[in-house]
Amino acid sequence: MLGLVVAIPDTSLADCTDLRDKTLKAGIFARVLAVFRVDTVAIYNSGLLQDDRKRDADLLARLLKYMDTPQYLRRRLFPQTPWLRYAGLLPPLRTRSHPLNAKVSGLVKGELRWGVQTGTGKVDIGVERPVNYTTPLSERESTLFRVVEVHPDVQLEVVERSDADIYWGFGVQLVGDLVRYLGDFTHSTRIAFSRAAAPYENLETTIQSSVTKTKAVMALFGGPYHGLREIFSDRLKSLQTNTEFWVNTIPGQGTETVRLEEAMLASLALLNGSVGSLISKPGFHA
Fold first, then answer.
1. Which domain holds residue 126?
2. How many angstroms separate the CA atoms of 142 and 283, rounded?
3. Taking 80 as the threshold, does the pLDDT of residue 260 lie above it?
4. Are 124 and 207 contained in the same domain?
5. How far is the C-alpha of 25 from the C-alpha of 13, rounded, in Å?
6. Which of 1, 36, 109, 200 would suit a FRET pair with 120, their CA atoms being 20 to 30 Å apart?
7. What DSSP designation does 169 have?
8. CB 208, CB 270: distance < 8 Å
């Protein structure tokens, strides 16, 4: 499975007035991404950010990475900085990558755990004491481990997020050129969401047929004030060449505008019900 990638613009926080609002909005985005089992979120350069908002893209990426990180590693990986001022307002994700067990005795052979090296030959995987692991690792980036033995001692092996057979959270990327980025996803079904497009139900059968073959979806969204057609007004043909479908998931909307988080909820919910079993790993209550 190649999974589900969601692309949102660097202007995604443009309708927020201060750090508190930006933090809360990032929390909503993270919840939506996790609920609908998104594997990667790509924050792309829109070319529309004003000079005083240039750092919004980096802030959004950091907050999303912070939320994807299990609580037991956050203090190690994210020292107190001004951008975390309102982190206490962020909702928990409660994905399977955020385990609640904190006991060595509760570890199960085969389970996955994010960890960070804490010293020579030791890693923190969220239990009451560091676990032995002799290979040097990063102390600034988390590493994913599989528990291969629990008795007489815990033994670990390094794996990739893609090795998990259940949904294990989302990765975050900053993308300079979305059109070029789309060129790397020619073997996925690339879907652009726009109110100036045909209703999803009109294209659902064709989309299902495409996803059955590709087993992957790239979902593209515009921003709070500019849709995809406006963001890429000077490169629209190039964007259209690199997408298979343009769809409207909220036809006849009852409000003048639809917020990005609302568009993501509606669109990813439709995708989940229509092709979710083809592109996403099992989550809870599978």
1. 104-161
2. 22
3. yes
4. no
5. 7
6. 109
7. -
8. no
